[in-house]
Design goal:
homodimer; Peroxisomal Thiolase, Chain A, domain 1; 2 domains; two-stranded antiparallel ribbon; 11 strands
């Protein structure tokens, strides 16, 4: 089935990313579901949607697990099979993968996959602690290392091996903040300069405040259908033609290399092979920029540039809007925000908009082939998906 | 595909249930995986197993989420797609369902599905709090109600509606404790009498200590294959011929009835319809006895007896070993133990043993058709699966 649609996206929804006061996770998710249902009036959700997979990373934020059933109920889908998937910050990347299995299985022709996280009602210290649960307890958390620290270790390794600079990392922030200014749903719609990034407070050297993604409330979803059924629901289906998911050791200390993520490489290879496309065919991508450095590493692991050359890619502005391969047109985790469980399908939402010509001021002209890349933790999970439209 | 195998179980594994001191969740899970791999020497796990779904309910116990990747690594499956599923105590029922989708999808011919929970290193108060995360935060947890309280509400409603007695509930405990004495992997291998149960400390009236399931460490898994491939790996495949999963409101207060679980009824109907069997065809079943009352309610919701007559079923010993339809031959959650994330696939393990004639002293003679029933929380999730062997 190389290059053939696995499933088709017939609709998608995204809550505003930012602070949502006074709502629970379940309600926040319903905002995304409502947009997706409203966008597709021929769909009768209660009757047509046969399963839900929802990425939700942390039950600590609201002292609330069992997210699947509550989100299904609040989205008007009471009764359907609803399962929470968790793979750290790749929780909804894993939901998407699970939904693809479900549609291909023949047991569920239409499924909703999404994700949600409510974070801003907690202090930064609490959020940092909850996020740390995605890293290795005995060998990382126990010794006090947090996610900025883990990615700082990777960033310094890359600086040492390839001469990557703090300025190059800062340019990722500048680009993604600029893109976010064109996205009304982004959390932080504010331009920054290289100087501002470099002068911001050090979190874990070389990562400074403006190198880090945002603590955000948000929800996202997409609706997947059997490709044969897609035209019944929309004139503009977006097909998923490649899907990859892979795992790695949970602890950094067990890995052969700190300058790349093996899980991303495996997931991307699986997705490219299935889709029968090359990195050169990708016209727009959303990659996992939990820290600016992570976006640079993703360029290399996804084959957007040779190993060690990601700094040059950003120096040459090739991944900016208007460049050869615009990356994170949504603003990315960096500036759109990173409500962790929601991120994977929020990336898919952006690619859906891009490939259906609905991305407004940040539209990549004539984009037909896109990619999303979602990472869990420090890379113990990665997913990659490839999208194509006929438009 | 009515009555046809969806997938085939080619192997299964279960850790000893009980206290495991000094091990992390990932290691505990590897015990179950090792048994499954050892039992199936023609399987090359690293090469043949294409995905993992693992039920794990609570990240609070070890301050550790992201269970999928770590469990995959420690089971010798580094690199494969590995996703944690969470649907409270039905987390591995949901993993099983997800694995069935994956095999049927054609993307993964062989998958491992399982579950794990490490609980005994925490105090009873901590465990009670962590478990409560599966109930509704704003309308249940916030007001101090815990799971024994929620099931006590359901039990009293049933007593009021149908005259069900505390003695009848106690008989469920007597039966399951007796069965557990025949299962060397059960946590509590100890007979109890109706008098002991009735005299035990009240937890939430009418539920007493011996009406409650156990806080246990344990792990379980089964290996699913495309039915056409099963004979390559085993002479005794067990086919899953029906699968159902359903959701309900997370809060009890929103439901029309307290004397039955709508999610169980929906999941069971879906599974029976798919399998083209009736409740009368089931020869052995593992049902979700988180409290003794829950087993009685399951008899009715699964169609093992008419509504309101579950007390008579246990009075007549029809669900004891040697009876018409032995239920919870493993000892059930009540006496084998309830490591919450592991329970769903531990039930499948028991049915696998029963249908392959490997259940030793607790073997149900000539059993060919079995059922498992796994409930999340107070019933916001339920799964039902139906199994058949050719043996």
């Amino acid at each position: 089935m190389k290059g053939k649609p696995l499933v088709s996206i017939i609709s998608a929804g995204l809550s505003k990313f930012g602070k949502h006061e006074g709502v629970y996770t379940r309600e926040l998710f319903s905002y995304a579901a409502k947009e997706a249902f409203d966008r597709c009036p021929t769909l009768n959700p209660k009757q047509d949607v046969k399963a839900m997979f929802i990425g939700h990373m942390g039950e600590a934020y609201e002292h609330q697990g069992h997210t699947g059933s509550a989100a299904a109920d609040w989205s008007g889908l009471l009764g359907i099979p609803a399962t929470r998937t968790e793979a750290a910050c790749a929780s909804s990347g894993a939901a998407l993968r699970s939904g693809i299995y479900a549609v291909l299985s023949g047991l569920a022709d239409i499924v909703i996959v999404g994700g949600v996280e409510k974070m801003t009602h907690r202090s930064t210290a609490e959020v940092t602690e909850y996020l740390a649960m995605a890293s290795d307890y005995p060998f990382e958390q126990f010794h006090g290392i947090t996610f900025p620290g883990l990615f700082a270790l990777m960033a310094t390794a890359h600086m040492n091996a390839y001469g990557t600079t703090q300025e190059q990392m800062a340019k990722v922030a500048v680009k993604n903040h600029h893109h976010a200014c064109l996205n009304p749903k982004a959390h932080l719609q504010k331009e920054v300069t290289v100087e501002t990034v470099l002068a911001s407070k050090v979190v874990a050297w070389p990562l400074k405040m403006y190198d880090c993604s945002l603590i955000t409330d948000g929800a996202s979803c997409i609706i997947l259908a059997k490709p044969e059924l897609a035209k019944k629901y929309t004139d503009q289906p977006v097909h998923i033609i490649g899907s990859g998911q892979a795992s790695d050791t949970i602890g950094l200390y067990q890995r052969k290399s700190l300058t790349s993520l093996q899980s991303t490489k495996l997931a991307a290879k699986a997705a490219y092979d299935m889709a029968a496309v090359n990195p050169q065919d990708i016209q727009v991508a959303e990659v996992h920029d939990c820290f600016t450095y992570a976006e640079l590493m993703a360029y290399e692991d996804l084959g957007f540039c040779p190993v060690g050359k990601s700094g040059q890619l950003i120096d040459n502005q090739e991944t900016c809007l208007g460049g050869r391969l615009p990356v994170n047109t949504s603003g990315g985790l960096k500036a759109k925000g990173h409500p962790v469980g929601a991120t994977g399908t929020a990336q898919a939402y952006e690619i859906y908009l891009q490939l259906t010509g609905q991305a407004d001021k940040r539209q990549v002209k004539d984009a037909q082939t896109g990619l999303t890349h979602n990472v869990g933790g420090s890379g113990a999970t990665a997913t990659a998906h490839i999208y194509r439209s006929d438009n």
